[in-house]
Amino acid sequence: MRKILKRIGQGLLILFILFIGLFVVPYFANIVMPWDRAHAIDAALEWGGLNELPENADIISVDTEGSMFTREFIIEFNCGQKELDLWIQQSGLNKLSPEKDENGIKVYRVPGQKGSIGGLVYVDINKGNVIIDMSWS
């Protein structure tokens, strides 16, 4: 009986350690786990009122920053010129004046949607590169 209880205790300890390692530590260490990538992308797009990423977008990175009271998602992707132009139009960025426009890189300040505080969208027209940086607090 003692051996069985010991095995159960070891099993519960292993499950607890796995839970902490897979869910709690990544949350506070600002790590986007593979199963959370789609949620992070969707949240960043929703917070900025932006259109879905182009179908053929090459997602370079999905990062997160913040604490238990704030969250920031940073999405970087590349796509072709036609797809980028269409995405800019569908996202409404063409209706905003860029804060900065240097060397083909435009920086748009996007007002927050769905309770977020918004953020910045960096568009490098020459390279077809976009960085979306949206925050919620």
Mind explaining what this structure looks like?
With 137 residues, the protein is an alpha+beta fold. Helix content is 36%, strand content 30%. It has a six-stranded antiparallel sheet with strand order 1-2-6-5-4-3, with helices on one face. A hairpin with a 4-residue loop joins strand 5 (118-124) and strand 6 (129-136). It is elongated and about 70 Å long.
Produce the secondary structure layout:
Elements: H1 2-28, H2 37-48, E1 58-66, E2 71-78, H3 81-91, E3 100-102, E4 105-110, E5 118-124, E6 129-136
Antiparallel strand pairs: 1-2, 2-6, 3-4, 4-5, 5-6
Summarize the entry for a quick read.
The chain is an alpha+beta fold and 137 residues long.
